[in-house]
C-alpha cells in the first residue's frame, strides 16, 4: 500500500473509532436539536416514558435518547471516501438506541409515530456503513445494540404528538411505513425537541471552482459556494474525497439559515515541494446539489501514482 494512503487510513480509522456511538447535534444553525439525559432510570414498559428513560421489558432494558433532526447524512463509502445521502425534501429523525440484555429487539420493531402515523426505522441506502454526521457510528441492530435509529419523515412534519415506539412485530423493510401495532414501549418526544421537525426544509445549491493546472510548487485552491434556497434552516454536509495519488476524505459542514450563503475554501498542497511530483491530483466534491470529480494537472509532474507523501489542508470561511 502506498505510504500516503496507509498513513491517512490509520488516522481516519482512529478518529472514526473514537467517534463511534456519539451524537453530535442537529440541523439548527443556532443550537443543536437534541434531547439528552445522562443518567436514565428504569421505567416499567406499561408506564409513560420520555426520551432518555430506560424501559425494562422481555428481559432487556431499552433506552432511547438524543433526538437529532437532519436533511442529509454523511457516511463512509470506503475507509478513505465519504458519500452523502439526502432526503429529497423529507428529513431524518435520528435517535440513539441502547439495549442491555441477551436478546436485543430487532431494529424493524422500532418506529416513529406522529399523530398516529407510523414511520419505520432504517436509512436504507446507508445500510451498515459507519456514519460521520450528523451522528457518528453505525445503525442499531441486534448485533450492534448501541447504535442509532433513523426515521425518514415528511418535512415539515405536521404533527402535535411525536413518539418513538417499540412494537411487537413491525415490518422488516426499511424506509417504509409500518402498520399500526400495540407498542410494547413508547418514548414521548418533548414538544421543544419535536419543534425542529416542524420546520420547512432547506434546499441547497452548490458550485465549486478549481484550476485546471498548477505548477509543482503551487497549492491547489478549492472554492465551494453554497446557498440555502429553501424556507428553513439546515446544515450543508459535504466532503472532499482525494482520489489519487493521495487517498483520504475530509468532511464539510456549513450551517445556513434560509436564504443564507457561505463559502468553504480548501487548499490541497501535498504535492508542493515533492521531489517527484505527480502528473495530476484527483479528487471529488460531493454534497447536496453537487457531485463533481476533478483532475488538476501538475506542470512538470509525472511520477508513478502512489509514491507521494504529505498532507492536505483545508480552511473554511464564510
Can you describe this structure?
By secondary structure, the protein is mainly β. It folds into two domains: 20-197, Immunoglobulin-like, CATH 2.60.40; 204-317, Immunoglobulins (Immunoglobulin-like), CATH 2.60.40. Helix content is 7%, strand content 46%. It is built from two helices and 22 strands. The protein has helices at 3-19, 191-194, and strands at residues 42-44, 49-50, 54-57, 60-70, 72-78, 81-86, 91-100, 110-114, 117-120, 131-133, 146-153, 162-167, 183-188, 204-209, 213-215, 220-228, 234-244, 247-256, 261-268, 280-287, 290-299, 313-317. A five-stranded mixed β-sheet has the order 1-3-4-7-11, with no helix packed on it. A five-stranded mixed β-sheet has the order 2-13-12-8-9, with no helix packed on it. The model is unreliable at 1-26, 28-40, 170-177 and 303-317 (pLDDT under 50).
Q: How is the topology of this model organized?
A:
Elements: H1 3-19, E1 42-44, E2 49-50, E3 54-57, E4 60-70, E5 72-78, E6 81-86, E7 91-100, E8 110-114, E9 117-120, E10 131-133, E11 146-153, E12 162-167, E13 183-188, H2 191-194, E14 204-209, E15 213-215, E16 220-228, E17 234-244, E18 247-256, E19 261-268, E20 280-287, E21 290-299, E22 313-317
Parallel strand pairs: 1-3, 2-13, 15-21
Antiparallel strand pairs: 3-4, 4-7, 5-6, 5-10, 7-11, 8-9, 8-12, 12-13, 14-16, 16-19, 17-18, 17-20, 19-22, 20-21
